[in-house]
Amino acid sequence: MTYDYPDAVRPDILRMIPADGLVIGSVGCGRGATEALLVAQGREVHGVDVAPEAIEQAMHRITSPRVVDPGERAPFAPASLDGLILADVLEHLTGAGEALASFAAAVKPGGWIAISVPNMRNAEVIARFVISGDWPEETTGIFDRTHVQIMSRKRLERWCLAAGLRPESWFDCYDPNGPRRHRFFRTLDRLTFRCFHHLLMYELQVLCRR
User: Quick check: is 1 in a domain?
Assistant: First the structure.
């Protein structure tokens, strides 16, 4: 397996994590760079990923990383976690709505789940797919060749509600790939009075409570 994703802290994910919750799970933790900062705060972070090479690095960063089978839907014991991170995971899974419900069962009642997925109702997708007629296969990003789900806000909301999750806060994410692109789309959003807000979101990011 080739692990294409960068070894980098994601501030867009960290800002979603609430102050409560000492025992946290992370599905698709990768190399654990982001989760390591939560460990530095004194929290336990138990991470799982399908990539052995990523977990090998996470071993030195988080509380208990381990490799799981791609079909694993219950990597943590029921009601064993205060919080759960699902950062760009659901779009890679078949039966993702049902998988979300299974993952959510690991969180205690009142606990939180931080979810991030690519927004495929995005201006870039419209330009490249609807106008140019192409859906490129790339190694990362919205057009990641391993995506099997088409994500939109309404679809994600529907999955959350079906899983017994209550959306608490939505976070704007114009583009995490560089400050210039982020500023450009944020400014465009303001100039257009947020009329095209959902089309300018690169990621859909929500904090839910169980």
Answer: no
Give the predicted TM-score (pTM) of the model: 0.95
pLDDT per residue as tens digits for the range 139-186: 999 999 999 999 999 999 999 999 999 999 999 999 877 788 889 999
Instruction: Please state, in angstroms and rounded to a whole number, the distance separating the CA atoms of residues 143 and 4.
Output: 13
Residue 22 falls inside a structural domain:
yes
8 Å CB contact between 46 and 83: no
4 within a domain of the structure (yes/no): no
CATH of the domain at 152: 3.40.50.150
